[in-house]
Fold this sequence. Notes:
The protein has 186 residues and is an alpha/beta fold. The chain has one domain (10-57, 81-184): Rossmann fold. The protein contains 5 helices and 6 strands; from the N terminus they run βαββαβαβαβα.
Amino acid sequence: MQLSTLDPNTALIVIDLQKGIVSGDFIHPIADIIDRTRALINTFRAKNLPVVLVNVAGRAPGRTEQAPRSTASFSEGWTDLLPQLDQQPGDITVTKRSWGAFATTDLEHQLKTRGVTQVVITGVATATGVEATARQAYEQGFNVTLATDAMTDLREEAHHYSISHVFPRLGETGSTNEIISLLEKL
Length: 186
């Protein structure tokens, strides 16, 4: 569904913009993703709306064909949020141990306690962390908006599939500028 509105109590969720991940070979320049996310963060903070900064520090249990499970810890600094996000004391910070930000955390409780009814999601990677978080937010009853120009993936086909086929079933999509324009009207 094309972007139409934002609820008065909308939160921004930023997925996995952390030191250990952003050095990946993404299909879009990561600096552009960070800049657009930063613009959204600035607008959400100016409107006194919640900003959620999510990092990943583990993996869900279970076997997969592609990624063998390891008990090794992440290297020093790998989970650190990017300094460009300018983490503030009022931000909600969540450390997840799965693809989605809701499954292994108390994020749903934190948002619902604040009366949040809608989330805007950005970050990396589109077809894993962002998509899983969007699916989980939708399943928890939040209205979902995805800032499609503020996310990227390692795989072009996965990125485009999520944006074209999955996200329209979960919520509305729009550009950073379109979302900021709607925020300014709140």
